[in-house]
Design brief:
heterodimer, A: 207 residues, alpha+beta, endopeptidase fold (from Nostoc punctiforme), 6-stranded antiparallel beta sheet, 10 strands, 21% strand, elongated, B: 464 residues, Immunoglobulin-like, Neuraminidase, 2 domains, 5-stranded mixed beta sheet
Chain lengths: 207, 464
């Protein structure tokens, strides 16, 4: 009987040690198991409609603070990451990384060209939300909020989201990486009138 | 212990250790394979989506265009630079009955917004009872079709003419001249304790979110949805400390409306299953009474004539979520779609912000119609509230520049603005988008917040 107990005790200890990392690894290995570091593909032109399809591919995926890589299986593959921890390797962009890739920008802040990154390319880009709000980077300009439309952005010191559509009641549908509990999706927001938000436009669209 | 027994014990322990490692490793591999299979199995799907800003209220001299944005890709063409190759038609009719006429959509390739367009024939657009329409759009790239609004011919979008409107001009808004409240009827510090309202754990840098919705009962009781702590706080008219009612909710941004019998409808804005949003119903004690899956993404819930009504997009229509206590299926919700929010007595209220102009209408059975046009030199943002008060309409709209914002309260009567004043936006914490104001009796209530906590203020309108 003692032998069985000893066997079971060591079995449980070993099993727990062998699997202990797995739960955490599920949350932390998305990037290492799925993402790449390939060079972006320069493109000669982009359209607002075309960039919207890039954004829509990220919809229903996760959110990762400091992140910039997602797939298109309509599922957050790393749910429950600690919301205040960057670099945990989970799925999703954060708000500014998502905007950077959808707007197809360059890592060189003086380059206003267009670069297709691919959704599985892990890249956050050089801008935080507050940088977008300030119009930082050659492609980005501050724009009056009253004149913003599809694919323009509204940015505060801590968040940025892009306009998906306007609603009849004066609200906007915003496509955004909202937070760990929310993931990336489209929601009705009132950012346009909120004085903590400013208007930002990516320049150079073909249409 | 003898040497032999010690040796046997060591052997058993090592065997257990090895067995545990092996079984654990196999478990990890199997689990990893399952995850990998799940990741690999879900290939990108063909995409087709359309959006549209419906001209719900049109001026008599206006050229009425219907514009649509359309996005599509094939499964292989994951991230496309090319605009969607699509075709489509609008089906339109004057008045609210009769056959629809098909008009093709034109691809205006250079447009930055609303690339697919048609013009409503003036004879239809100027019909005294308005016009109704829906669109069917097909992607040539992937063969998918979308109907907008989702109810199609059964529940088309409706546009009403602004005939004999009361007109008002607000001029340039003077910021900083806000009215103070008549009474603070509820307040709480941020926190998780009794009588406190929680802030969501949003992580680094993000804006604070908390106290995401509220409502006022017929007896003046104030209900605040404390979503972060998964409860409702209820302030009575006399008591300073609120009662707490736990709710089984997601704990993220949600809208809420409370019926006269205390039934609370909570509109969740997050859900595990893709775009499926949920409307949860609780009795006055917080006991869950049911959950409705909504047809589309939704932003507002209000108590309608026969149950909860929800504003759903991309249809851009108010839809019944339940009638007589029974949840409606998504298709039944789409079939109930209306351009205005249904009110008691068969009336509905319609709001439409077009640039710096606010258009509003109370529309009732027969030819009952009261309409208003309010223009402003300062930009207008969202219409937070539009509620009838007798034969008047109380409207709260946000006005803004790139640096400032305030709410403007207007009491609209037969000849225009009967009363108007400004309120501080008081929006330190984010709430559900259109849940900052409620009208109860002759008082307006505002949900506000500061870094210290949230509050609800009462502003008496004193309309005679």
């Amino acid at each position: 009987m003692t032998g069985v107990r000893t066997f079971l005790a060591w079995f449980v200890v070993a099993f727990c040690l062998a699997t202990a990392g797995t739960a955490g690894a599920y949350h932390t290995q998305f990037v290492s198991q799925n993402c790449n570091w390939a060079s972006p593909t320069p493109t000669s032109y982009i359209t607002r409609d075309g960039s919207m399809t890039v954004a829509l591919r990220a919809r229903y995926e996760g959110y990762q603070w400091g992140g910039g890589c997602w797939n298109d299986n309509n599922n957050d593959d790393s749910p429950g990451d600690p919301p205040a921890t960057g670099g945990t390797g989970g799925e999703g962009g954060d708000c500014s990384g998502f905007t950077f890739k959808v707007w197809r920008e360059s890592l060189n802040e003086n380059d206003a060209g267009f670069y297709q990154w691919g959704m599985l390319r892990f890249e956050h880009g050089p801008y935080l939300a507050q940088n977008f709000k300030g119009g930082a980077g050659a492609p980005n300009v501050i724009a009056p909020k009253s004149g913003l439309y599809q694919m323009d952005a509204l940015a505060s010191m801590g968040h940025v989201g892009m306009i998906y559509a306007r609603n009849a009641d004066g609200t906007d549908l915003i496509i955004e990486a909202k937070g760990e509990a929310y993931g990336t999706n489209i929601w009705t927001r009132t950012y346009r009138g909120d004085s903590s938000y400013g208007g930002v436009r990516r320049t150079g669209w073909s249409s | 212990m003898s040497e032999a027994r010690l040796s046997h014990s060591k052997f058993v322990g090592i065997a257990g250790l090895v067995a545990g490692v092996v079984v654990g490793a196999v478990t990890v591999v199997l689990a990893g394979t399952a995850v990998a299979h799940r990741l690999a199995a879900a290939a990108p799907e063909p995409l087709l989506e359309a959006t549209h800003l419906p001209p719900l209220l049109t001026a008599p001299d206006e050229r009425v265009e219907l514009r649509y944005d359309v996005y599509c890709t094939t499964a292989e063409q994951i991230e496309s630079d090319a605009p969607c190759d699509a075709t489509g038609s609008v089906f339109v009719r004057a008045a609210q009955v009769g056959p629809f006429t098909e008009i093709g959509l034109r691809d205006e390739g250079s447009a930055s917004e609303g690339r697919f367009v048609t013009v409503v024939p003036s004879a239809v657009a100027r019909s005294p009872s308005g016009f109704a329409y829906y669109a069917v759009i097909r992607s040539r790239a992937n063969g998918k079709t979308v109907t907008l609004p989702g109810g199609g011919a059964t529940a088309p979008q409706r546009s009403a003419p602004l005939l004999q409107s009361a007109v008002a001009t607000l001029g340039e808004h003077g910021f900083g001249k806000t009215r103070t409240a008549d009474r603070r009827v509820a307040e709480a510090a941020w926190g998780t304790g009794p009588g406190e309202v929680g802030l969501e754990d949003v992580g680094k840098n993000l804006s604070p979110i908390g106290g995401s919705a509220f409502d006022v009962g017929p007896d003046g009781d104030v209900y605040v949805l404390d979503e972060a702590n998964r409860r409702v706080l209820r302030w009575g008219t006399e008591s300073g400390s609120p009662a707490q009612v736990p709710l089984e909710i997601n704990g993220t941004l949600a809208d809420m409306s409370v019926a006269a019998d205390g039934t609370a409808y909570v509109l969740e804005t997050t859900g595990a299953a893709r775009d499926t949003m949920l409307l949860r119903t609780f009795d006055a004690n917080g006991v869950a009474k049911g959950t409705s899956e909504l047809a589309e993404r939704a932003s507002q819930v209000r108590v309608g004539p026969s149950g909860p009504v929800v504003l759903q997009t991309t249809s851009g229509q108010w839809m019944s979520a339940a009638t007589g206590g029974r949840a409606l299926s998504p298709s039944a919700q789409k079939a109930s779609g209306r351009s205005g929010r249904p009110l008691l007595g068969g009336r509905e209220v319609v709001v439409y912000r077009s640039g710096n102009e606010l258009r509003a209408a109370l529309i009732g059975p027969g030819f009952f119609r009261k309409t208003w046009r309010v223009t402003s030199e300062t930009p207008l943002a969202e219409v937070q509230l539009a509620e009838p008060l007798g034969n008047r309409l109380v409207v709260v709209v946000r006005t803004f520049t790139d640096q400032r914002d305030e709410f403007v309260v207007l009491v609209l009567g037969p000849r225009g603005v009967e009363k108007g004043f400004s309120l501080d936006s008081a929006d330190w914490a984010e709430t559900a988008p259109l849940s900052r104001f409620r009208l109860a009796g002759q008082s307006l209530y505002q949900l506000g917040s500061t870094p210290a906590g949230m509050f609800v203020d009462r502003i008496d309108l004193e309309v005679k």
